[in-house]
Design brief:
The chain is α/β, with parallel strands linked by helices and 266 residues long. It contains ten helices and twelve strands.
Length: 266
């Protein structure tokens, strides 16, 4: 087989196509399934909720930040799928003693398409990968036409409370905000900065504040609290998966973003 290189530049050589896969990234588990690799998946995290039935048919090996190394070892995988942001370097290094560890690094939509291409080649699902890439490209072009000419909105995208944290730059959430024509007021503050909501006005005074459904379960009282420190910004609860999950879920995000744009209005 040819050589393969992951998105961190690590080189891999396989005598045959990997057949036993442990996936430690929920969105990538969904992608593997959508590429027709359900039978090859042997281990997943407790956060791998799409498709839902995998939680009852595959071995749960922990979360994304804390895994059970021995459970993974007993599965005898010949490939472990990780992500630079989702999984720690310590986890990746520990797992290399068990099997090859493929690490993805997704910041842009093009990074996502490249991951799909790589999985298609790596797992001998090139035709399936090509179909997903074509569908995503088509849907993205249609959505870009849809948002063309809409006003640019200043936004803040919150992901956590106590401390309050937002999506900054150099991450997939910011890429999806830009796709929607939003200007992230925290784009110059690092990847996931802590912020003081009392300073929202002087830090950019967003027109819209997004409260993500994950990883923190924001409530109505949180929306009220944040809104107090803006000049009448619209506070909107959003589906975090649509902004932060890559892989095949991106295709669903475009339809969701159309609905979101209509909710926000002109």
């Amino acid at each position: 087989m040819p050589d393969f290189t992951d998105q961190l530049g690590h080189l891999f050589q396989f005598e045959e196509t990997p057949k036993r896969i442990v996936s430690l990234v929920p969105s990538q588990t969904e992608l593997l399934y959508d590429l027709g690799l359900e039978q090859e998946i042997v281990g997943i995290t407790k956060f791998c909720v799409h498709p839902f039935h995998l939680k009852s048919t595959k071995k749960i090996v922990g979360g994304t930040k804390k895994v059970h190394i021995e459970k993974i070892r007993l599965l005898q995988p010949d490939m472990i799928i990780c992500n630079k942001e989702e999984n720690t370097l310590e986890i990746v290094e520990a797992l290399r003693d068990i099997a090859p560890v493929w690490v993805t690094n997704i910041v842009t939509l093009e990074d996502n398409l490249e991951m799909i291409r790589q999985f298609g080649a790596l797992f001998n699902r090139r035709t399936e990968a090509r179909k997903w890439i074509d569908k995503i490209n088509f849907a993205q072009r249609e959505f870009q036409q849809f948002v063309m000419g809409r006003p640019i909105r200043k936004v803040a995208y919150f992901i956590w409370k106590d401390p309050w944290m937002v999506a900054g730059n150099d991450n997939f959430i910011d890429e999806m905000l830009q796709l929607n024509g939003f200007t992230n007021i925290y784009a110059n503050k690092g990847r996931y900065p802590e912020v003081h909501i009392q300073k929202l006005r002087i830090q950019g005074d967003p027109e819209i504040v997004f409260l993500s459904s994950e990883p923190y379960p924001f409530k109505e009282e949180d929306a009220f609290e944040v809104g107090r420190f803006t000049h009448h910004a619209k506070v909107v609860f959003v589906d975090g998966e649509m902004f932060s999950w890559y892989g095949s879920r991106v295709l669903k995000s475009f339809a969701y973003f159309r609905q979101l744009q209509n909710r926000i209005g002109d």
